[in-house]
Amino acid sequence: MNICCIGAGYVGGPTMAMIASKCPDITVEVVDINEERIAAWNSDTLPIYEPGLQEVVEGARGRNLHFSTGVSRAIRESEIIFVSVNTPTKTYGLGANRAADLRFVESVARDIAQYAEGPKIIVEKSTIPVRTAEAIHSILETSGNGFQHQVLSNPEFLAEGTAIRDLENPDRILIGGDQTPEGLAAIETLVDVYAGWVPRERILQTNLWSSELAKLVANAFLAQRVSSINSISALCEATEADVDEVAHAIGTDSRIGAKFLKASVGFGGSCFQKDVFNLVYLCEHFGLPDVAEYWKQVIKMNQWQKQRFADSVVRAFYNTVNNKRIAVLGFAFKKDTNDTRESPAIDICKQLLEERASLAIYDPKVEAEKIYEDLDRSADDPLLQICESAEEAAEAANAILVLTEWDEFREIDFKKLYQSMVKPAWIFDGRNLLDHESLREIGFKVKAIGKTVES
For the residues of 145-158, what is the DSSP string, one character each? Predict the structure, then answer.
């Protein structure tokens, strides 16, 4: 069997690498029109950082895993075509700032309609709104070649930073398709691919629309949990409760569970905000304004949490951080990734820059050029310095902000950092990562999410 994936991003690359690794009898080709990205996949420096990804790619690349820009050829030669292109939130027109922009999905569908020389199984891997398969079917039918393509929904449930582990041992694989003999046969073909390493009882089969909607709902529920515990973190600070103790207490309830109850500066990444906005738009589109308003609050709470954190930094310095040097530890939206999309660090840093703070930023994996781009600043900006270490960032700083939960930040010699900082030296722990009591013993003033406020 030949499989191709159109789109060599965070989903397509790792997913196809795992299929190739686990199914050596299947030829897998990842194609993209971005020549620079494909060149990176064929090099020793992959375009994304993910623990374990390098080893999986190198184990299969050149054997049955290939990366190329040959989109038309790959379409012709493949029985299964995964569509894994970007579906950003629209920034214009109908549904602006809420609806998914499906222009890349449409473009791929038109390419398949043009180049396919036989019936294909087309798999929606991108996160898309419910009923997108209908649009794909419509475009394919315009080709006039009479091929009876089957469109399946196979949403990804990967978490960046643990994507390889998630792919190797997934909670479930979800496949939706038409409940016709042809659709069921297509589903079974894809089931057979995943069954190469995933137990069949973990491969769930649904109708097309349930599968498409399940992805949006899963991310919305996870985002909701983060916003919920973050709302409680503010109450904890006001009442001298401890948000970690509250989270542990409710998390031991089997009906609630402990996952995604870690208070923080807010959620980020490419999926949560985009998918909640998409769900809001769908609810509005189908005449459910009250449901839409409910889900809007998840985003509002996330924005408020970031604003609240930045405000607390400014208030600690008597409402002005002008000419204050602030060390920012972490810029990626979570540890073990170099992805900065919707990272809370972006909004927090922008707010502090507007207050004329001088920022010294260190992240183990995010490149300086990406930080400058995300902050809309240039390398010669006097208020912004990109550092090579936490020690460099903290030198002569008034405060340290922990914005990403990198493990290496736990190992920092804070006694050494304290000696190099301006006194009083503050630490604002936006991830509740550090040992706050030991930091206070060193001499730091500490402010953490959902903890007693340092006076």
Answer: S----EEEE-----
Of residues 340, 323, 309, 351, the one with CA closest to residue 451: 309
Per-residue pLDDT, 102: 85
- Spatial strand order in the sheet of 384-386: 384-386, 358-362, 325-329, 399-402, 426-429, 445-448
Give the integer Cα–Cα distance in Å for 263 and 360: 24
Task: Give the type of residue at 303.
Answer: Q
Q: Which residues pair with 362 in a beta bridge?
A: 329
The span from the CA of 29 to the CA of 74, in Å, is: 7
- Positions in the chain short of pLDDT 50: 455
- Residue 271 known to be catalytic: yes
Residue type for 66, please?
H
Residue 77 and residue 107: Cα distance in Å, rounded? 19
CA–CA distance, 50 with 214 (Å, rounded to integer): 25
Would you state the pLDDT for residue 96? 86
Please name which of 44, 16, 42 lies closest in space to residue 30, comparing C-alpha atoms.
16
Please say whether the dihedral angle defined by the alpha carbons of residues 122, 28, 25 and 196, taken in this order, is positive or negative.
negative
Give dist(CA 270, CA 215) in Å, integer: 13
Rounded distance between C-alpha atoms, residue 159 and residue 271, angstroms? 10
- At residue 100, the 3 state secondary structure works out as strand
329-377 pLDDT tens trace = 999 999 999 999 999 999 999 999 999 999 999 999 999 999 999 999 9
Q: How big is the chain, counted in residues?
A: 455
Question: Burial of 86 by CB count in 10 Å (0-12 exposed, 13-18 middle, 19+ buried)?
Answer: middle
pTM recorded for the entire structure: 0.89
Bridging pattern class, strands 399-402 and 65-68 = unpaired
> Omega of the bond prior to 424 within 30 degrees of 0, cis?
yes
Q: Which phi and psi angles does 108 have, rounded to 5°?
A: -65, -40
Exposed, middle or buried: residue 445 (CB in 10 Å: 0-12, 13-18, 19+)?
A: middle
Could you tell me if 172 and 205 are in contact, meaning their C-beta atoms sit under 8 angstroms apart? no
Cα separation, 344 vs 340, whole angstroms: 9
271, 283, 349, 387: the active-site residue: 271
**Dist. CA 38–CA 13, nearest whole Å:** 10
